[in-house]
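hey
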C-alpha cells in the first residue's frame, strides 16, 4: 500500500486512551498514516472510537479513505454485474454522502422506512474520483469457479466451499472477458450487525429505495466523526454463502484502488483542505 514506510513523526505522542495501531509512510506525494481497527473487533461503535482517537492524536489530518471489505448486492438480471473481488465506492449524490446507516432507519406508515443517517462528503477526495482511471496492481484472483451466486432464499451447507449445496439453486451468469475487478459506485449500506441472509438483504434494499451496491459493518460509525470516502472490496454476496476465501483478495483490490485514487489528489490541494476536525465543528 505505501510507497515508503517511515517512523512516527518527531514529537508524536498519543493520549493513553488511543489504542489504535498506526503505520506511517508516503503514497505518492502524500504523507500517509494508516490507522487499523483492533483485530477481531467490528461494528460502527469500534469505528467511531478509532476515528475519534485518530483525530485526537493527529489533529492535522485532512482527508482519509476508509478501506476494507464488504458484501455485494448482486442482481441476477445483470449478467455482467457484480463479481467477487470487485471494488465498491460510495458515490455521494443529492444531500447524501453515499452511505446509509440501516440501524437509523425509522419505521413509518406500513413497512416503508425513512433513512436518518448519512456520511459527510470529503470534497478533496471526491475531486480525485473525477480524475481516477482504472488500472490497478492486484493479487491473483480466486477464479470464476469459486465465485457463485445463489437464489434467495436458500440454505448454505457449512464448509469451506459450496460443494454440499444444492446446485439447482445456483444462478448461471455469463463469465467476464477478464478476471480484472470492476469498480462500482453507489450507495453503501452500513449496519452494526453482520448481514448474511439474502432475503433480509433484499428487504433492506427495497426499504431504502436506493441504488445500493454493498453491505458493510463500520462506515456508519464515521458519520459524526470523520468525513471520508468508503472503499470496499467484495468478498461475498451478503448471503449464507460466506467463507474467508475471498477476503484477502478483496482487501488487496480495495487497497490497490485507494492507492491509485490518492495519486489523483494533488498535495497542494490537500494543504488547502480544512482539517477534518474543523469540518466536523463547522458541521
Amino acid at each position: 500500500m505505501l510507497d515508503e514506510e517511515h517512523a512516527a513523526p518527531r514529537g508524536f505522542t498519543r493520549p493513553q486512551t488511543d489504542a489504535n495501531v498506526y503505520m506511517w509512510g508516503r503514497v505518492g506525494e502524500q504523507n500517509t498514516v494508516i490507522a487499523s481497527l483492533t483485530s477481531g473487533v467490528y461494528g460502527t461503535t469500534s469505528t467511531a472510537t478509532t476515528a475519534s482517537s485518530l483525530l485526537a492524536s493527529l489533529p492535522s489530518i485532512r482527508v482519509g479513505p476508509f478501506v476494507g471489505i464488504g458484501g455485494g448486492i448482486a442482481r441476477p438480471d445483470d449478467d455482467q454485474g457484480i463479481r467477487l473481488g470487485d471494488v465498491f465506492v460510495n458515490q455521494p449524490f443529492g444531500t447524501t454522502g453515499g452511505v446509509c446507516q440501516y440501524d437509523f432507519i425509522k419505521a413509518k406508515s406500513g413497512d416503508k422506512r425513512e433513512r436518518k443517517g448519512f456520511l459527510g462528503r470529503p470534497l478533496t477526495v471526491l475531486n480525485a474520483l473525477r480524475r481516477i482511471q482504472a488500472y490497478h496492481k492486484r493479487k491473483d484472483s480466486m477464479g470464476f469457479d469459486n465465485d457463485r451466486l445463489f437464489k434467495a432464499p436458500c440454505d448454505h451447507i457449512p464448509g469451506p466451499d459450496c460443494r454440499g449445496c444444492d446446485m439447482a439453486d445456483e444462478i448461471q451468469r455469463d463469465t467476464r472477458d477478464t478476471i480484472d475487478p470492476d469498480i462500482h459506485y453507489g450507495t453503501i449500506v452500513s449496519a452494526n450487525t453482520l448481514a448474511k441472509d439474502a432475503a433480509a438483504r433484499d428487504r433492506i434494499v427495497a426499504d431504502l429505495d436506493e441504488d445500493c451496491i454493498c453491505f458493510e459493518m463500520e462506515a456508519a460509525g464515521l458519520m459524526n466523526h470523520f468525513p471520508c470516502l468508503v472503499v470496499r472490496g467484495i468478498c461475498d454476496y451478503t448471503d449464507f454463502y460466506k467463507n474467508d476465501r475471498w477476503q484477502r483478495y478483496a482487501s488487496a483490490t480495495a487497497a490497490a484502488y485507494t492507492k491509485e485514487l490518492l495519486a489523483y489528489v494533488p498535495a497542494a490541494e490537500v494543504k488547502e483542505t480544512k482539517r477534518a476536525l474543523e469540518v466536523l465543528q463547522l458541521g
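The radius of gyration is 19 Å. The first helix runs from residue 44 to 57.
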